[in-house]
Structures are given as structure tokens and as C-alpha cells.
């Protein structure tokens, strides 16, 4: 927000404070100042000149020789290349000795042998960007009003005798995106009361708004407030100099009196407006609704926009005439032929405007204000002020009445807080009178009791809702630099990691050793992503005041964030990606506002595990590669023997035939599987495999201590067994039977063959295992191993209906 100090002086007495000092005070009270600009310090010898003659230079196709009166006893001869120069104009003249913002120093010179005693300046040469220069002055000089005083400084006519303070407005202080909002803020800083001109509308009582237009909205959540006035018999002409000056110095290009007034009111009140050519509406009905799928609208920039139901449009009852809160339509914009103006002032749902502006890349000063919120008490006041100003500048008449839809009314908010709470939070010893005085400086009314304070907050400060907001206001105005500085009191303890912290760090090192890169995702996400990949019951925990729609709910799984990271990398030609993340997920607790926080480890892999090279062929990531990583980690933390895998179709985001839940001690502690192919196609991903484990469940439990055992002195032996079973029998089930019935000397089991096909019955599979036996205290006897082995085979036949081969 670029604040004009002269404009601010219309509301306040700033004679006793310099712009730099004022900027320092604003910074100390919490609004950051990016820069302070004082153009007049570097610009001198710029005066108003009257062009007496202007004749084409002989031998040149674009230069003119002019004589200019600058009220210095004699006229100056100046060579000028502007195509719009002509006699009788009042212009800006840089006399010899002047230095322009681009570093050019003006001096007497000769152009093609013709003496030139200065320079007739364009706005660009005085530091204005092309984006704000009026169209009539784009390729030439800027012509001053005829009543500009010859020989006087030209700076006041273009606003360069002003000072400008650049404010960096945070999202919570959108009230400062208007000159009146800044006026209230500076008034509080300087302990003044701002004085704003009273707005009155002179209406033509002979006609009523109902004869001209009616307004309706389909969804009052999308459009809580919509108002419209009509101004008739308007002559659309150029804006007066004072209005052009204010707009240019705020970074807005003057267009015509009607459009300029809407922009001026937006700067003054923070309320965006839009002006329609009433006759071009070709209707007496305005209807605000969601756009239909693929509905089209040509916006003011000449671009044809293809819309969808996520966009909000203003229609003439049938077809769109504007993109609500973002940009008007080309078919109803104000032109020099316009005679009747339909003027809109409204409040639109901020999330709809933000998404539309972002999707169409149409962010503007108006959309920025709708996104951050508006002062509901100023919606009609701004409309009235703009309507009267358009009528005054265009010699028109304001039709009596306002067409309106109002689902909400501006209301004051009351916040109650105790003095003890304020002093406790700030470490101060303020008394009640001091706090009341600070609130009155802000323009807030107060009611006091023994130790409590009730503050009445007007609609213009919609950011203030709770106790913490009042404490912040007290801290700002009391002065952050006056708050006491104290050191925290705590016992000094030796710094070391707990057992669990060390295990988490070890897990991080293991995952990186397995070839995965660490990713850190934001814990806040959309409601849909927060629920994805999780079987935890209940809606995710949501913030009452989220920063945006994309950061409104706490995640219940790490996988959505990892999947976004995978998609981001693949879209940038990183085809072989493996990420892991260790972080917290948040489960809702029915009888508590606070969620249950659980530490998870998750991973996502896609592409090749081994890229093709001279020695090896390419190996793509698959289910078993990811399962192998987890099995190694389970072995490291000492739970591998208690882990089992159970196929699952409970996760809609995962492949129903390539997903398994991970169980430990008869409880589900994680999931592993392939991303559902449909979701992978939507995200332009190839086969992607995911896993997520509840680390708290595994690391918080008591583990048997690891005891070293020496290598056995006695040799072991092995047996192989092959059998045919139903293809639905799981490897994990086979292992359970073998471990239960294999005897006390069975040390390890290894699957070395799995076959389906020729010579194997349909629906069956052949599995072959190698079994290792060993007695650490003696040499095993053949009959001992044979007995255990036969018992194991019998169990396979009995429990799994296996056919031993």
C-alpha cells in the first residue's frame, strides 16, 4: 500500500512530524514500512511553462522548436520531440541545472545546431512508470491544466511535492489497505481523532431505482451483500488533475472520470467498485450466480475466459457481464458514449475470489481486497460517495434509492478481557486508565468493571475477535520497545537424546542409507488430503481461522504430502524419486479440543530402483523392494519376528490387489502398497509405492535386551520341502505353521522357489522352502531332525491342505 502523506493530511494534522519520523512510528506499532520516498528532495528547477510557439525543425521528421514562457523575463527556446506539443499548452519544463530521476542532468545544448535551453518533460522522464501514465500522454508530454501558474514549481501539479510511505500489509491487517484505514491507524499512533468529510447524496426524487434495476443473488454465502446505484445523464470525460494525481501516485493509470472514481474510492475506503454501462446491460435485472461449466466471458483485457462453477459471475439475468470481484466484461464497460451508469458495491466470499483470480491469473487491487476482507460498514458509504462524485464530475443525476441484497448487517463486536490477563501476557504493570486510553486512541468504546474491560470493536477492524487481539493492540500502542525484557527461568540440565529420540534419529539414518531422501511436508492441508490414506475415524481437526483453504485441516497421514512432493519432482523430469518423512499426524479426540499427536514414518518411491548401466539392467521399484526396506528396518529395531503382513482393500487410495496392512502384536501399525492406478494417472505418475508406519507404537514398547551369543561350535543341517497349495495361501501363513510345528532346533526358513503354470493345477501354486536346523550345544542327530521335519510336513498337509511334492 503506497500512502500519500498529503492525502493523509486531509484527515489528520501532520505538521509536527516528518514523513520519516511518521514511518518510524508506524513500524514501531507493527506495520512494516518498506520505503519512504520524497521526490522533491532530488527534483528541482522543474517549473510550469507556457508554450508560445511550436514549429517543426527543418530537416527533422519529429523534432519541434518551441519558445516557452517560464516567467523569467524572457522566453526559452527548447527543442522538443513530443508529437503532441503545440502552442498554448501548459507543460513541465526542466531548466538547466535540473537533475531527473533517471540521472540525466539538464544543461544548455544544441540539437542539430539548434540551441535548446532546457527540456519539456514527459511523465516517464519524471519517474512515472508506463503503467500509470494516462493514455493521452503515453507517447508525448503531459499537459497541465490551463490555470497552472507559469514559472511556479511544477511538482504540486503532478504530486511530486508529496512524500510516500510504502506499507507492507500483512493478511491480518487488511484494514490498512485503504487511506481511511491508514488514517485511523496513524490517528491512534499520534493520539488524534481523524476527520473524514461527510458523505451526502443528492438524489433525483422524480425517479426511483426500482424503475431502473433490481438485484438478486443465488447463494447469499457467496454474496452476503450486493448493492447498486444508478447515475443518469452522465458525460464521461477526463478526470480532473487532483484525481489523476492521486491515482498515478498510488500506481493506478487514469482512464476516465467514471473508472477513476471507482479506483479512487477503492483507495480511500478499501471497497472495490465496478461501473457498468447501464444501456449495454440490456436488462433491468442483475443476477449474481456461479458460472456454468465452460461458460464464456470476454473480460476487459480482451481475453476470452472459459469459466467453471468455481467462478462467480455478474449476469444481466442471463449472460455474464462481469467476473465478480476480479474483472468486468468487455460487453458492458464504460465508454465515452455512455450516458447512464450502474454502479456496483458488494461483498463476495473471499475464497471464491482468490481461487478465481489465481486460476485465471487475474490478480488485481480489487481481488486482493476481496480476498482479505472488507469493512462491511463502508460498503454503502463508499457506493454513495462514488455515485455522487461521478454525478458531480459528469454533470449527471443520482437516481433515488439503492437496489440491494443484504444477508448480513455491519455489527460491532464486544471482547471482554481482564487487566491481569493483559499484564500477565505482556509482563507490564498497566493500570485500567492506561488501557482504556489506548483503546480510545484506536476509536474503540470501552466499559470497565472492577478488573475487567469490555471493548466494543467497530466493523472497520474485522481482524479483532478474541482476547489475544486486544492484547496485541495494547502492546502495539503501548510500544513494543517499552515491554520489559526478561530471561526465562529454568534449571540447567545436560543435553542428551532420550531413548526414543535416538531411535527416531537412527530411523532417519537408516532411511537415508536405503536411498531415500528426507522430505518435510506442511502439517496443515486441505480437508480432503487430511483424510486420505488414513483409516482413523472422525473428521480431521480444523483451524477456526485458517491462513487459506489449502491449510485448514491437520493431516491424519503423511502420505498426501509425500505424494505431492513426488508429483512435483516428476513434473520437473526427476523420474526416479524416493522420499521418506518422519513427522506427526493428528487424530481427533471426541472429548477434547486438542488432537492426539502420533509420530509416523512414511515413504514414497517411483521410477527405477537401479538405473540401467554397463553392468546391470534397469530395475523398477516394486512392492517387494519397498517391503524389503521395511523388513530391514524392523530387524534393526528388533521387531522383525513379530511383524506380519495382511492383504487389505480398505484403502481407496491404494491398489486393492497390491496393498497390505502391517501388523505387530495383533494390532495394525502401518500399511504398504501401490498407489491406485487411477490416482496415479490423475497425477501423471507411473507405478508409485507407499508405506506408512506408526513409530510410537513400535518404539514406545518394551523390548527384550539384545544379548550377544557366540557362533555355535557344532554344525547344523538343512532340509528342503516343496508342496502345492491354493494360490490364496499367504507366505506369512506358511511361515506361521512352520515356526509353530518345526521343532525347537529350527533356526531359519527361506522361500527359494514359487511357481504357477504348466503341470500345476489351475488355482494352485508350488512353493519350495529351505529349512536350517542347529543345536548350539551338541551335534544334531539325524533322527532328531527327521522327526521334526516330518512333523512340519504333516502340519502343512493338515492345516493348509498342502500336497507334498
| Count of extended strands | 41
Shape assignment: elongated
Radius of gyration: 38 Å
Question: N- to C-terminal separation?
Answer: 83 Å
Estimate percent helicity. 25-40%
Order of strands side by side in the largest beta sheet? 27-30-31-37-36-35-34
Cofactor: Mg(2+)
Subunit structure: Tetramer of two alpha and two beta subunits.
Domain TRNA-binding: 40-155
Keywords: Aminoacyl-tRNA synthetase, ATP-binding, Cytoplasm, Ligase, Magnesium, Metal-binding, Nucleotide-binding, Protein biosynthesis, RNA-binding, tRNA-binding
Word description of this protein:
Residues 712-805 form the FDX-ACB domain. Belongs to the phenylalanyl-tRNA synthetase beta subunit family. Type 1 subfamily. Its cofactor is Mg(2+). This protein has 805 residues and is an alpha+beta fold. It folds into six domains: 2-38 and 163-190, Phenylalanyl-tRNA Synthetase, Chain B, domain 1 (2-Layer Sandwich), CATH 3.30.56.10; 41-158, OB fold (Dihydrolipoamide Acetyltransferase, E2P) (Beta Barrel); 203-406, Phenylalanyl-tRNA Synthetase, Chain B, domain 3; 413-482, Phenylalanyl-tRNA Synthetase, Chain B, domain 1 (2-Layer Sandwich), CATH 3.30.56.10; 499-699, BirA Bifunctional Protein, domain 2 (2-Layer Sandwich); 717-804, Ferrodoxin-fold anticodon-binding domain (Alpha-Beta Plaits, 2-Layer Sandwich). Helices cover 26% and strands 28% of the residues. It contains 21 helices and 41 strands. The strands form eleven sheets. It has a seven-stranded mixed beta sheet, with helices on both faces. Strands 11, 13, 14, 21, 22 and 23 form a six-stranded mixed beta sheet that branches. It is elongated.
Amino acid at each position: 500500500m503506497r500512502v500519500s502523506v498529503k492525502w493523509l493530511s486531509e484527515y489528520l494534522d501532520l505538521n509536527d512530524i516528518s514523513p520519516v519520523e511518521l514511518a518510524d512510528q508506524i513500524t514501531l506499532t507493527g506495520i512494516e514500512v518498506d520505503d519512504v520516498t520524497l521526490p522533491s528532495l532530488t527534483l528541482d528547477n522543474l517549473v510550469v511553462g507556457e508554450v508560445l510557439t511550436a514549429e517543426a525543425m527543418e530537416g527533422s521528421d519529429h523534432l519541434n522548436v518551441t519558445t516557452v514562457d517560464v516567467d523569467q523575463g524572457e522566453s526559452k527556446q527548447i527543442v522538443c520531440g513530443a508529437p503532441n506539443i503545440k502552442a498554448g499548452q501548459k507543460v513541465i519544463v526542466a531548466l538547466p541545472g535540473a537533475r531527473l530521476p533517471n540521472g540525466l542532468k539538464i544543461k544548455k545544448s544544441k540539437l542539430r545546431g539548434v540551441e535548446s535551453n532546457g527540456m519539456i518533460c514527459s511523465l516517464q522522464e519524471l519517474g512515472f512508470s508506463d503503467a500509470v501514465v494516462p493514455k493521452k500522454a503515453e507517447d508525448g508530454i503531459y499537459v497541465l491544466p490551463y490555470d497552472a501558474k507559469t514559472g511556479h514549481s511544477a511538482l504540486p501539479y503532478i504530486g511530486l511535492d508529496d512524500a510516500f510511505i510504502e506499507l507492507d500489509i500483512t493478511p491480518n491487517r487488511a484494514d490498512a489497505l485503504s487511506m481511511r484505514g491508514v488514517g485511523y491507524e496513524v490517528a491512534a499512533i499520534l493520539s488524534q481523532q481523524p476527520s473524514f468529510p461527510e458523505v451526502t447524496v443528492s438524489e433525483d426524487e422524480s425517479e426511483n431505482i426500482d424503475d431502473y434495476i433490481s438485484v438478486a443473488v443465488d447463494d447469499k454465502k457467496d454474496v452476503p451483500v450486493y448493492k447498486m446505484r444508478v447515475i443518469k445523464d452522465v458525460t464521461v470525460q477526463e478526470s480532473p488533475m487532483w484525481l489523476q494525481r492521486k491515482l498515478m501516485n498510488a500506481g493506478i493509470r487514469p482512464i476516465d472520470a467514471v473508472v477513476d472514481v471507482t479506483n479512487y474510492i477503492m483507495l480511500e475506503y478499501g471497497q472495490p467498485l465496478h461501473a457498468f454501462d447501464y444501456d449495454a446491460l440490456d436488462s433491468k435485472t442483475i443476477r449474481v450466480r456461479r458460472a456454468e461449466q465452460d461458460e464464456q466471458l470476454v473480460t476487459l483485457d480482451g481475453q476470452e475466459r472459459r469459466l467453471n462453477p468455481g467462478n462467480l459471475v455478474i449476469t444481466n439475468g442471463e449472460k455474464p457481464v462481469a467476473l465478480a470481484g476480479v474483472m468486468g466484461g468487455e460487453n458492458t464497460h464504460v465508454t465515452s458514449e455512455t450516458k447512464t451508469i450502474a454502479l456496483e458495491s458488494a461483498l463476495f466470499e473471499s475464497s471464491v475470489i482468490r481461487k478465481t483470480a489465481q486460476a485465471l491469473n487475474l490478480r488485481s487491487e480489487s481481488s486482493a481486497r476481496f480476498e482479505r476482507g472488507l469493512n462491511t460498514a463502508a460498503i454503502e458509504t463508499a457506493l454513495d460517495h462514488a455515485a455522487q462524485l461521478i454525478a458531480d464530475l459528469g454533470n449527471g443525476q443520482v437516481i433515488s434509492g439503492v437496489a440491494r441484497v443484504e444477508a448480513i448487517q455491519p455489527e460491532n463486536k464486544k471482547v471482554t478481557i481482564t487487566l491481569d490477563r493483559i499484564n500477565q501476557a505482556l509482563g507490564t504493570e498497566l493500570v485500567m486508565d492506561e488501557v482504556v486510553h489506548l483503546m480510545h486512541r484506536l476509536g474503540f468504546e470501552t466499559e470497565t468493571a472492577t478488573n475487567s474491560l469490555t471493548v466494543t470493536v467497530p466493523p472497520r477492524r474485522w481482524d479483532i475477535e478474541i482476547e489475544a487481539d486486544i492484547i496485541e493492540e495494547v502492546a502495539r500502542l503501548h510500544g513494543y520497545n517499552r515491554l520489559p525484557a526478561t530471561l526465562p527461568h529454568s534449571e540447567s540440565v545436560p543435553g542428551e537424546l532420550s531413548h526414543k529420540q535416538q531411535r527416531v534419529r537412527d530411523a532417519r539414518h537408516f532411511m537415508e542409507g536405503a536411498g531415500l531422501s528426507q522430505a518435510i511436508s506442511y502439517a496443515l492441508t486441505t480437508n480432503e488430503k487430511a483424510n486420505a490414506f488414513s483409516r482413523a475415524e472422525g473428521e480431521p481437526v480444523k483451524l477456526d481461522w485458517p491462513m487459506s483453504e489449502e491449510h485448514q485441516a491437520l493431516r491424519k497421514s503423511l502420505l498426501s504430502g509425500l505424494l505431492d512432493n513426488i508429483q512435483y519432482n516428476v513434473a520437473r523430469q526427476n523420474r526416479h524419486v524416493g522420499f521418506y518423512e518422519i513427522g506427526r499426524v493428528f487424530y481427533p479426540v471426541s472429548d477434547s479440543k486438542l488432537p492426539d499427536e502420533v509420530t509416523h514414518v512414511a515413504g514414497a518411491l517411483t521410477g527405477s530402483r537401479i538405473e540401467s548401466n554397463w553392468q546391470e539392467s534397469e530395475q523398477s521399484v516394486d512392492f517387494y523392494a519397498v517391503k524389503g526396506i521395511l523388513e530391514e528396518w524392523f530387524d534393526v529395531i528388533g521387531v522383525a519376528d513379530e511383524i506380519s503382513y495382511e492383504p487389505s482393500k480398505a484403502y481407496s487410495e491404494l491398489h486393492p490387489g497390491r496393498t497390505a496392512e502391517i501388523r505387530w502384536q495383533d494390532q495394525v501399525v502401518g500399511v504398504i502398497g501401490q498407489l491406485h492406478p487411477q490416482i496415479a494417472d490423475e497425477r501423471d505418475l507411473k507405478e508409485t509405492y507407499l508405506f506408512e508406519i506408526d513409530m510410537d507404537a513400535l518404539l514406545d514398547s518394551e523390548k527384550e535386551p539384545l544379548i550377544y551369543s557366540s557362533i555355535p561350535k557344532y554344525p547344523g543341517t538343512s532340509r528342503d520341502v516343496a508342496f502345492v497349495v491354493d494360490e490364496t495361501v499367504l507366505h506369512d501363513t506358511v511361515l506361521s505353521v512352520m515356526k509353530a510345528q518345526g521343532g525347537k532346533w529350527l533356526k531359519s526358513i527361506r522361500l527359494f522357489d514359487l511357481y504357477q503354470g504348466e503341470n500345476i493345477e489351475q488355482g494352485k501354486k508350488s512353493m519350495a522352502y529351505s529349512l536350517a536346523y542347529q543345536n548350539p550345544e551338541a551335534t544334531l542327530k539325524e533322527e532328531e531332525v527327521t522327526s521334526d521335519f516330518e512333523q512340519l510336513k504333516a502340519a502343512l498337509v493338515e492345516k493348509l491342505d498342502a500336497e507334498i511334492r
